[in-house]
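Ticket #4471: structure output looks truncated?

Reporter: J.K.
Steps to reproduce: submitted the chain below (144 residues) through the standard prediction queue, then opened the result file.
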Amino acid sequence: MNKYTELKNRHQKEVNAFPLGAAFSNKQFAEMMEKWGLTENDTDKIYKIGAGCFIRKSDHAAFHEMLDRHGRERNAAIAEDKTGDGYIYDMFYTELANHEYCITCELDETLEALCLTIDEINADKRLLRGLKKARAKYLKNCKE
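Returned output as attached by the reporter:
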C-alpha cells in the first residue's frame, strides 16, 4: 500500500469512528436523535454539517480538531517528500486512478480531491514532478 493510501485510510477510519449521524428521512432523523439520547425537538443541540450529516454541538470542537489535524498531517506528508517521488507521487497516482484520468484526461477532479490548484502545482517542482511521474506511470499501466 502506498503512503498516501495509508494516511487516507487512517483518516477515514477516524472519521468513521466519530459520532456522526446521517438522516435522509424523518424516521432516520428520529432514530439518529434517539441514538444520541435526544428528542426530535432537540435541534438546538446538533449541527448540520452537510450531505445529510449531523454532529452534536458537544462534539463540534473535537470534530474540527480532528479535521484540522488531518489537514496538518497531509501537509506534513507533502512537506517531508523532498523530491516528489514518495507521498506526492502516491497521492497523484491514487487520485488519478480514483477519478479515471485515463478516460477523462481531465485533472479537475483529481486536483479538487487533493485541494490543489494547477498554479500551486506549477509553483512547486516537487508537486509538478510527482504529478508528471504519476500521470506517465498511470497512463502506461492503463495501456497495458
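Triage note (M.O.): checked the attachment and the full C-alpha cell line is present. Residues 1-70 form one domain.
Status: closed, working as intended.
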